[in-house]
Amino acid sequence: MNLVVLQNGLDNISFAILLITLLLYWVGAAFPNLPYLSVLGTAGMAIANLSIAALLGARWIEAGYFPISNLYESLFFLTWGLTTIHLIAEQMSRSRLVGVVTSPVAMGIAAFATLKLPAQMRVAEPLVPALKSNWLMMHVSVMMLSYATLMVGSLLAIAFLILTRGQEIELSGSSLGTRISRNHQKPVSKIINYAPEILAESHPKGLTTNGNSTTAVLEFVKTDNLESATLLSPQRLTLVETIDNISYRIIGLGFPLLTIGIISGAVWANEAWGSYWSWDPKETWALITWLVFAAYLHARITRGWQGRKPAILAATGFVVVWVCYLGVNLLGKGLHSYGWFF
Questions:
Q1: Considering the domain boundaries, does residue 223 fall inside one?
Q2: Do 153 and 280 share a domain, yes or no?
Q3: Together in a domain, 142 and 55
Q4: How many domains does the chain have?
Q5: Are residues 257 and 303 in the same domain?
Q6: Which residues form the Cytochrome c assembly protein domain (predicted)?
Protein backbone atom coordinates (compact mmCIF):
# COMPACT_ATOMS: atom_id res chain seq x y z
CA MET A 1 0.00 0.00 0.00
CA ASN A 2 2.87 2.36 0.82
CA LEU A 3 4.31 1.71 -2.62
CA VAL A 4 0.99 2.64 -4.23
CA VAL A 5 0.89 5.91 -2.31
CA LEU A 6 4.51 6.54 -3.29
CA GLN A 7 3.70 5.99 -6.96
CA ASN A 8 0.71 8.34 -6.84
CA GLY A 9 2.90 10.98 -5.27
CA LEU A 10 5.79 10.52 -7.67
CA ASP A 11 3.71 10.78 -10.84
CA ASN A 12 2.20 14.07 -9.65
CA ILE A 13 5.61 15.34 -8.55
CA SER A 14 7.12 14.42 -11.92
CA PHE A 15 4.36 16.26 -13.76
CA ALA A 16 4.76 19.35 -11.56
CA ILE A 17 8.55 19.41 -12.00
CA LEU A 18 8.25 19.07 -15.77
CA LEU A 19 5.72 21.91 -15.85
CA ILE A 20 8.09 24.16 -13.89
CA THR A 21 10.96 23.07 -16.13
CA LEU A 22 8.93 23.99 -19.21
CA LEU A 23 8.36 27.48 -17.82
CA LEU A 24 12.05 27.87 -16.98
CA TYR A 25 13.15 26.97 -20.50
CA TRP A 26 10.58 29.17 -22.22
CA VAL A 27 11.17 32.17 -19.98
CA GLY A 28 14.90 31.65 -20.43
CA ALA A 29 14.45 31.65 -24.20
CA ALA A 30 12.43 34.87 -23.99
CA PHE A 31 15.05 36.53 -21.75
CA PRO A 32 18.45 35.23 -22.88
CA ASN A 33 20.22 37.61 -20.49
CA LEU A 34 19.20 35.33 -17.62
CA PRO A 35 21.50 32.33 -18.14
CA TYR A 36 20.77 30.82 -14.73
CA LEU A 37 17.28 29.88 -15.95
CA SER A 38 18.86 27.41 -18.39
CA VAL A 39 20.83 25.84 -15.54
CA LEU A 40 17.65 25.54 -13.47
CA GLY A 41 15.88 23.99 -16.46
CA THR A 42 18.60 21.34 -16.80
CA ALA A 43 18.37 20.64 -13.06
CA GLY A 44 14.59 20.32 -13.35
CA MET A 45 14.92 17.78 -16.16
CA ALA A 46 17.42 15.77 -14.11
CA ILE A 47 15.16 15.81 -11.03
CA ALA A 48 12.15 14.76 -13.12
CA ASN A 49 14.22 11.96 -14.62
CA LEU A 50 15.14 10.67 -11.18
CA SER A 51 11.53 10.98 -9.94
CA ILE A 52 10.23 8.92 -12.85
CA ALA A 53 13.00 6.35 -12.33
CA ALA A 54 11.90 6.06 -8.69
CA LEU A 55 8.27 5.71 -9.81
CA LEU A 56 9.14 2.90 -12.21
CA GLY A 57 11.32 1.24 -9.58
CA ALA A 58 8.50 1.29 -7.01
CA ARG A 59 6.14 -0.07 -9.64
CA TRP A 60 8.60 -2.87 -10.44
CA ILE A 61 8.87 -3.87 -6.78
CA GLU A 62 5.11 -3.80 -6.28
CA ALA A 63 4.13 -5.71 -9.42
CA GLY A 64 7.09 -8.08 -9.55
CA TYR A 65 7.76 -7.51 -13.26
CA PHE A 66 9.38 -4.84 -15.41
CA PRO A 67 6.88 -1.93 -15.41
CA ILE A 68 6.16 -1.54 -19.10
CA SER A 69 3.12 -3.74 -19.65
CA ASN A 70 0.33 -1.16 -19.96
CA LEU A 71 -0.21 2.35 -21.29
CA TYR A 72 0.39 4.13 -17.97
CA GLU A 73 3.71 2.43 -17.43
CA SER A 74 4.87 2.85 -21.02
CA LEU A 75 4.00 6.57 -21.01
CA PHE A 76 6.16 7.19 -17.97
CA PHE A 77 8.92 4.99 -19.37
CA LEU A 78 8.75 7.07 -22.56
CA THR A 79 8.96 10.26 -20.50
CA TRP A 80 11.96 8.89 -18.65
CA GLY A 81 13.59 8.09 -21.99
CA LEU A 82 12.83 11.58 -23.33
CA THR A 83 14.35 13.30 -20.31
CA THR A 84 17.42 11.05 -20.50
CA ILE A 85 18.02 11.73 -24.20
CA HIS A 86 17.29 15.41 -23.59
CA LEU A 87 20.10 15.61 -21.05
CA ILE A 88 22.47 13.93 -23.52
CA ALA A 89 21.47 16.20 -26.41
CA GLU A 90 21.69 19.33 -24.26
CA GLN A 91 25.17 18.36 -23.10
CA MET A 92 26.22 17.83 -26.72
CA SER A 93 24.75 21.07 -28.05
CA ARG A 94 25.26 23.40 -25.06
CA SER A 95 22.03 25.12 -26.10
CA ARG A 96 18.86 25.85 -24.13
CA LEU A 97 16.91 25.42 -27.36
CA VAL A 98 16.91 21.65 -26.74
CA GLY A 99 14.83 22.15 -23.61
CA VAL A 100 12.53 24.60 -25.34
CA VAL A 101 11.36 21.90 -27.77
CA THR A 102 11.61 18.76 -25.60
CA SER A 103 10.14 19.98 -22.30
CA PRO A 104 6.60 20.56 -23.68
CA VAL A 105 6.46 17.01 -25.06
CA ALA A 106 7.79 15.45 -21.85
CA MET A 107 5.39 17.50 -19.73
CA GLY A 108 2.46 16.69 -22.02
CA ILE A 109 3.08 12.94 -21.81
CA ALA A 110 3.35 13.06 -18.02
CA ALA A 111 0.17 15.14 -17.81
CA PHE A 112 -1.70 12.70 -20.03
CA ALA A 113 -0.59 9.71 -17.96
CA THR A 114 -1.29 11.40 -14.63
CA LEU A 115 -4.49 13.31 -15.30
CA LYS A 116 -6.21 11.77 -18.32
CA LEU A 117 -5.92 7.99 -18.12
CA PRO A 118 -8.77 6.14 -16.39
CA ALA A 119 -7.97 4.94 -12.86
CA GLN A 120 -8.15 1.28 -13.85
CA MET A 121 -5.38 1.78 -16.41
CA ARG A 122 -3.04 3.13 -13.73
CA VAL A 123 -3.34 0.02 -11.56
CA ALA A 124 -0.66 -2.66 -11.75
CA GLU A 125 -2.27 -5.95 -12.71
CA PRO A 126 -0.89 -9.49 -13.19
CA LEU A 127 0.60 -10.13 -16.60
CA VAL A 128 -1.40 -12.01 -19.19
CA PRO A 129 0.25 -15.31 -20.25
CA ALA A 130 1.56 -13.90 -23.54
CA LEU A 131 3.55 -11.23 -21.65
CA LYS A 132 5.17 -13.62 -19.18
CA SER A 133 8.42 -13.75 -21.08
CA ASN A 134 11.94 -12.39 -20.77
CA TRP A 135 11.31 -10.75 -24.14
CA LEU A 136 8.99 -8.24 -22.43
CA MET A 137 11.91 -6.25 -21.03
CA MET A 138 14.11 -6.75 -24.09
CA HIS A 139 11.63 -5.88 -26.82
CA VAL A 140 9.39 -3.24 -25.25
CA SER A 141 12.10 -1.31 -23.41
CA VAL A 142 14.29 -1.07 -26.51
CA MET A 143 11.32 0.02 -28.63
CA MET A 144 10.37 2.70 -26.11
CA LEU A 145 13.94 3.97 -25.91
CA SER A 146 14.05 4.13 -29.70
CA TYR A 147 10.80 6.12 -29.73
CA ALA A 148 12.17 8.57 -27.16
CA THR A 149 15.46 8.97 -29.03
CA LEU A 150 13.82 9.45 -32.42
CA MET A 151 11.36 11.94 -30.94
CA VAL A 152 14.14 14.11 -29.55
CA GLY A 153 16.00 13.99 -32.86
CA SER A 154 12.82 14.87 -34.74
CA LEU A 155 12.02 17.73 -32.35
CA LEU A 156 15.45 19.20 -32.99
CA ALA A 157 14.77 18.90 -36.72
CA ILE A 158 11.51 20.80 -36.21
CA ALA A 159 13.46 23.47 -34.29
CA PHE A 160 15.88 23.66 -37.23
CA LEU A 161 12.97 24.21 -39.63
CA ILE A 162 11.61 27.00 -37.43
CA LEU A 163 14.99 28.71 -37.21
CA THR A 164 15.42 28.58 -40.99
CA ARG A 165 11.83 29.30 -41.98
CA GLY A 166 11.48 31.25 -45.20
CA GLN A 167 14.93 30.17 -46.30
CA GLU A 168 16.41 27.42 -48.40
CA ILE A 169 19.56 26.41 -46.61
CA GLU A 170 22.26 23.88 -47.36
CA LEU A 171 24.89 23.19 -44.74
CA SER A 172 28.36 22.26 -45.86
CA GLY A 173 29.92 21.46 -42.50
CA SER A 174 30.91 25.07 -41.83
CA SER A 175 28.75 28.08 -41.13
CA LEU A 176 30.92 30.06 -43.54
CA GLY A 177 29.84 27.77 -46.36
CA THR A 178 26.13 27.99 -45.69
CA ARG A 179 24.02 28.98 -48.65
CA ILE A 180 20.71 30.71 -47.94
CA SER A 181 17.94 31.99 -50.16
CA ARG A 182 14.98 34.09 -49.15
CA ASN A 183 11.70 34.81 -50.91
CA HIS A 184 12.47 32.32 -53.69
CA GLN A 185 15.53 34.31 -54.73
CA LYS A 186 19.06 32.96 -54.86
CA PRO A 187 21.26 34.87 -52.42
CA VAL A 188 24.50 33.08 -51.55
CA SER A 189 26.76 33.52 -48.54
CA LYS A 190 30.35 33.89 -49.70
CA ILE A 191 33.79 34.43 -48.24
CA ILE A 192 35.07 37.62 -49.76
CA ASN A 193 38.45 39.23 -49.15
CA TYR A 194 38.56 43.00 -49.21
CA ALA A 195 41.05 45.56 -48.06
CA PRO A 196 40.36 46.37 -44.39
CA GLU A 197 39.87 50.09 -45.02
CA ILE A 198 37.06 49.40 -47.54
CA LEU A 199 35.03 47.08 -45.31
CA ALA A 200 35.60 49.12 -42.18
CA GLU A 201 33.46 51.92 -43.59
CA SER A 202 30.29 49.82 -44.08
CA HIS A 203 30.81 46.84 -41.76
CA PRO A 204 32.90 47.92 -38.79
CA LYS A 205 31.77 44.94 -36.71
CA GLY A 206 31.93 41.22 -37.27
CA LEU A 207 35.07 41.28 -39.41
CA THR A 208 38.20 39.19 -39.00
CA THR A 209 41.59 40.31 -40.26
CA ASN A 210 44.01 37.85 -41.83
CA GLY A 211 47.27 39.36 -43.08
CA ASN A 212 46.58 42.14 -45.59
CA SER A 213 42.93 41.31 -46.13
CA THR A 214 39.75 41.15 -44.11
CA THR A 215 37.31 38.25 -44.32
CA ALA A 216 33.60 39.00 -44.16
CA VAL A 217 30.58 36.76 -44.60
CA LEU A 218 28.22 38.63 -46.89
CA GLU A 219 24.81 37.77 -48.24
CA PHE A 220 24.22 38.93 -51.81
CA VAL A 221 20.57 39.38 -52.78
CA LYS A 222 19.79 39.62 -56.47
CA THR A 223 17.14 42.23 -57.28
CA ASP A 224 16.28 44.30 -60.36
CA ASN A 225 19.68 45.52 -61.55
CA LEU A 226 20.75 45.76 -57.89
CA GLU A 227 23.09 43.72 -55.78
CA SER A 228 23.03 44.55 -52.09
CA ALA A 229 25.06 42.98 -49.30
CA THR A 230 24.14 42.44 -45.62
CA LEU A 231 26.26 40.83 -42.93
CA LEU A 232 25.00 37.42 -41.75
CA SER A 233 24.96 36.53 -38.06
CA PRO A 234 27.69 33.97 -37.32
CA GLN A 235 25.98 33.08 -34.04
CA ARG A 236 22.74 32.18 -35.75
CA LEU A 237 24.50 30.10 -38.38
CA THR A 238 26.48 28.28 -35.70
CA LEU A 239 23.28 27.52 -33.77
CA VAL A 240 21.56 26.23 -36.91
CA GLU A 241 24.45 23.95 -37.76
CA THR A 242 24.68 22.66 -34.19
CA ILE A 243 20.98 21.82 -34.05
CA ASP A 244 21.16 20.07 -37.43
CA ASN A 245 24.22 18.07 -36.37
CA ILE A 246 22.81 17.01 -33.00
CA SER A 247 19.50 16.02 -34.60
CA TYR A 248 21.38 13.82 -37.07
CA ARG A 249 23.42 12.19 -34.31
CA ILE A 250 20.44 11.54 -32.06
CA ILE A 251 18.44 9.97 -34.90
CA GLY A 252 21.53 7.95 -35.77
CA LEU A 253 21.41 6.56 -32.22
CA GLY A 254 17.66 5.89 -32.26
CA PHE A 255 17.58 4.03 -35.56
CA PRO A 256 19.71 1.04 -34.43
CA LEU A 257 17.58 0.82 -31.28
CA LEU A 258 14.45 0.71 -33.44
CA THR A 259 16.01 -2.00 -35.61
CA ILE A 260 16.95 -4.11 -32.59
CA GLY A 261 13.47 -3.62 -31.12
CA ILE A 262 11.73 -4.77 -34.30
CA ILE A 263 13.97 -7.84 -34.64
CA SER A 264 13.48 -8.84 -30.99
CA GLY A 265 9.73 -8.34 -31.40
CA ALA A 266 9.71 -10.66 -34.40
CA VAL A 267 11.53 -13.35 -32.43
CA TRP A 268 9.14 -12.96 -29.51
CA ALA A 269 6.14 -13.09 -31.86
CA ASN A 270 7.40 -16.35 -33.31
CA GLU A 271 7.68 -17.86 -29.82
CA ALA A 272 4.27 -16.59 -28.71
CA TRP A 273 2.17 -16.87 -31.88
CA GLY A 274 4.22 -19.07 -34.20
CA SER A 275 4.91 -16.36 -36.79
CA TYR A 276 7.68 -13.80 -37.10
CA TRP A 277 5.46 -11.28 -38.89
CA SER A 278 1.68 -11.13 -39.10
CA TRP A 279 1.13 -7.60 -40.51
CA ASP A 280 -0.55 -6.52 -37.30
CA PRO A 281 -1.23 -2.72 -37.43
CA LYS A 282 1.50 -2.13 -34.86
CA GLU A 283 4.01 -4.16 -36.88
CA THR A 284 3.05 -2.37 -40.08
CA TRP A 285 3.53 1.08 -38.57
CA ALA A 286 6.79 0.01 -36.95
CA LEU A 287 7.99 -0.90 -40.43
CA ILE A 288 6.78 2.46 -41.78
CA THR A 289 8.65 4.24 -38.97
CA TRP A 290 11.79 2.27 -39.79
CA LEU A 291 11.51 3.14 -43.48
CA VAL A 292 11.05 6.87 -42.80
CA PHE A 293 14.17 7.13 -40.66
CA ALA A 294 16.08 4.77 -42.94
CA ALA A 295 15.29 7.19 -45.77
CA TYR A 296 16.48 10.10 -43.62
CA LEU A 297 19.80 8.45 -42.81
CA HIS A 298 20.23 7.29 -46.41
CA ALA A 299 19.69 10.84 -47.62
CA ARG A 300 22.21 12.20 -45.12
CA ILE A 301 24.90 9.54 -45.49
CA THR A 302 24.66 8.35 -49.10
CA ARG A 303 23.09 11.30 -50.92
CA GLY A 304 24.80 13.94 -48.81
CA TRP A 305 21.60 15.84 -48.07
CA GLN A 306 21.82 18.56 -45.44
CA GLY A 307 19.59 21.38 -44.31
CA ARG A 308 15.84 21.64 -44.70
CA LYS A 309 15.11 18.64 -46.94
CA PRO A 310 16.22 15.94 -44.46
CA ALA A 311 14.84 18.02 -41.59
CA ILE A 312 11.39 17.87 -43.19
CA LEU A 313 11.75 14.10 -43.44
CA ALA A 314 12.75 13.88 -39.77
CA ALA A 315 9.84 16.11 -38.75
CA THR A 316 7.51 13.76 -40.61
CA GLY A 317 9.06 10.94 -38.61
CA PHE A 318 7.90 12.62 -35.39
CA VAL A 319 4.28 12.21 -36.47
CA VAL A 320 4.88 8.65 -37.68
CA VAL A 321 6.41 7.66 -34.33
CA TRP A 322 3.35 8.92 -32.48
CA VAL A 323 1.01 7.06 -34.81
CA CYS A 324 3.06 3.89 -34.33
CA TYR A 325 3.29 4.21 -30.56
CA LEU A 326 -0.05 5.64 -29.47
CA GLY A 327 -2.41 6.00 -32.42
CA VAL A 328 -2.36 2.34 -33.45
CA ASN A 329 -2.63 1.16 -29.85
CA LEU A 330 -5.65 3.29 -29.01
CA LEU A 331 -7.54 3.44 -32.30
CA GLY A 332 -6.55 0.27 -34.09
CA LYS A 333 -7.55 -3.31 -33.50
CA GLY A 334 -4.78 -5.84 -33.24
CA LEU A 335 -2.52 -7.83 -31.00
CA HIS A 336 -0.96 -4.67 -29.55
CA SER A 337 -4.11 -2.62 -28.94
CA TYR A 338 -4.89 -1.24 -25.50
CA GLY A 339 -8.61 -1.17 -26.30
CA TRP A 340 -9.36 2.13 -24.56
CA PHE A 341 -11.36 3.86 -27.28
CA PHE A 342 -12.60 0.75 -29.13
A1: no
A2: yes
A3: no
A4: 2
A5: yes
A6: 69-336
Nearest to 83 by CA among 115, 55, 121: 55
Please give the chain's pLDDT, 342 residues, in tens.
467 777 778 889 999 999 999 999 999 888 888 878 888 999 999 999 999 999 999 888 888 888 888 888 899 999 999 999 999 999 888 888 899 999 999 999 999 998 888 888 788 777 777 677 788 888 889 999 999 999 999 999 999 998 887 655 555 543 333 444 444 444 433 333 433 443 444 444 444 444 444 343 433 333 333 333 333 366 667 788 888 899 999 999 999 999 999 999 888 888 877 788 888 888 888 999 999 999 999 998 887 777 788 899 999 999 999 998 887 766 656 555 544 443
Q: Where are the alpha helices (DSSP H) in the chain?
A: 2-30, 36-63, 71-93, 97-111, 135, 141-163, 196-202, 234-273, 281-301, 308-322, 328-331
**Assigned domain for 293 exists:** yes
This prediction's pTM? 0.79
User: In terms of DSSP bridges, do strands 226-231 and 179-182 run parallel, antiparallel, or are they unpaired?
Assistant: unpaired
The strand pairing partners of 188, in sequence order, are: 220
